[in-house]
TrEMBL record:
It comes from the Eukaryota. It comes from Cervus elaphus hippelaphus. This is EEF1E1. One of its GO terms (cellular component) is nucleus. Residues 21-102 form the GST C-terminal domain. Gene3D superfamilies: 1.20.1050.10, 3.40.30.90. One of its GO terms (biological process) is positive regulation of DNA damage response, signal transduction by p53 class mediator. SUPFAM superfamilies: GST C-terminal domain-like.
């Protein structure tokens, strides 16, 4: 589990928590979504990564995830539509190891 020690606050644990914190620290909050709906979609995909990708290593599980993503992205450029977000970054990061193994 990743841990971030901050100079002026508590240590933070978990990839999603740390990534969201760093996005805010860098004043890149648009990566968390621009509208309430987009923010909800970002959160949805971050949760999807934790529940469907992290900890799953069988080829069948990952094939199902990739099939779901392929269908979902059929008419979209990014997970929220046309805006690149933290969800795209972290989902790619989570799936990259499986993609290079194929």
């Amino acid at each position: 589990i990743p841990v971030l020690q901050t100079n002026n606050g508590p240590s933070l644990t978990g990839l999603t928590t740390i990534a969201a914190h760093l996005v805010k620290q860098a004043n890149k909050e648009y990566l968390l979504g621009s509208t309430p709906e987009e923010k909800a979609v970002v959160q949805q995909w971050l949760e999807y990564r934790v529940t469907r990708v992290d900890g799953h290593s069988s080829k069948d599980d990952i094939r199902a995830v990739l099939k779901d993503l392929n269908s979902y992205l059929e008419d979209k450029v990014y997970l929220t539509g046309y805006n690149f977000t933290l969800a795209d970054i972290l989902l790619y990061y989570g799936l990259h190891r499986f993609i290079v193994m194929q």
